[in-house]
């Protein structure tokens, strides 16, 4: 589990990190949706996922399974915002899944590239390429059309999903910078993120009155073996998703993580029509989702071409310098 060499990622590690994150992210959407269909206390579920992550990494460090360094107060201060934004992203995403069907949830989350580009512009990264801009606008247009045709429209669910997009954007930018600047491994950032989130999450579930009734309900429902296994799977996948997301962002970039999220959404959207229900098929809704998906694929292709062009220019400049 020790990945202190993340910064010097090999091509295999880069591909593995992106692929693993895509699979874990897609699986997690369906697992969380399945749990929340039977257990509506999303904040308690998130708290349990973060507690499981913290305990697992601590146990791994104590037993020598991972070489992750211990808690450092200065590092914890630097990563406090990362933890807050990440958990806000997940909390609002879980809340949205209670009212939004999976295809529409994926369509809204695909708006993250637009938010990332806007954040990049304000950070001084300049104006994006024409293809990138057009593909992002296509994603947004598809999302709007799909929403108009969504007969199961839930204002609360939509609001939660859009808020999640904002916090995911802030989180991706911050975690990329903190991982590069502090030289932390993906496991170490994951530990800080989970550990720092616990006091905030515990305060929230108590302040909102969700706890302790949510825990009593969880214990009562765990008499069902199928539900118990589903919750255990959710806790395990929460750890896997955290790890692969941090790993992908560190060895690649925040943008790569976003692109992978867009591409895995193609499979999630398709499966969302046939798994777990909640989708009322309508021509306008399907058309919007297709446009949204096409925009996501185009965006990924445009970013790949952009990166390839930069690499070619760098090689040309080096050759010219040698001459």
TrEMBL record:
| Pfam families for this protein | TPT
Q: Which GO terms describe its cellular component?
A: membrane
For membrane topology, the record states: Multi-pass membrane protein
The primary site where this protein sits is membrane
**Residue ranges occupied by any Sugar phosphate transporter domain in the UniProt entry:** 24-300
| Compartment(s) where it occurs, according to its Swiss-Prot or TrEMBL record | Membrane
Q: What is this protein called?
A: UDP-galactose/UDP-glucose transporter 7
Which species does the entry assign this protein to? Rhodamnia argentea
